[in-house]
Design a protein that fits this description.
Blueprint (H helix, E strand, L loop, with lengths): L7 H12 L3 H11 L2 H18 L4 H8 L3 H13 L3 H13 L1
Helix pairs in contact: 3-4, 3-5
InterPro entries: Trp_repress, Trp_repressor/repl_initiator, TrpR-like_sf, YecD_YerC
GO molecular function: DNA-binding transcription factor activity; sequence-specific DNA binding
Protein name: TrpR YerC/YecD
């Protein structure tokens, strides 16, 4: 039972995010939009995804990020069965590094 996140409000949020031009602007915007804990949770999930792609164990990931095994499992499910959003971003980040 999937929730439909495609709403006008979400569209507007994504349009706002696409307007950001620098990391500093991201900090300014996201510190207003998210609580510190929400932002830290998002960044933790991203770090977990990165480490899962690097074939790190759940124990290694948990020790480094502080993520619970439930969070690691949820991120792993997204990597395996999701929409390939993480992969798209990782590939673009890799291309920009080169």
């Amino acid at each position: 039972m999937s929730k439909n996140i495609h709403t006008d409000a979400v569209d507007q949020l994504f349009e706002a995010i696409l307007c950001l031009k620098s990391k500093e602007e991201c900090y300014t915007f996201f510190e207003d939009v998210c609580t510190i804990n929400e932002l830290l949770s998002l960044s933790q999930r991203f770090e977990v995804a990165k480490m899962l792609r690097e074939k790190k164990t759940y124990l290694e990931i948990s020790e480094k990020t502080g993520a619970s095994t439930a969070t690691i499992s949820r991120v792993n499910r997204s990597l395996t069965y999701g929409n390939d959003g993480y992969e798209m971003v990782f590939q673009r980040m890799k291309s920009e590094e080169e």
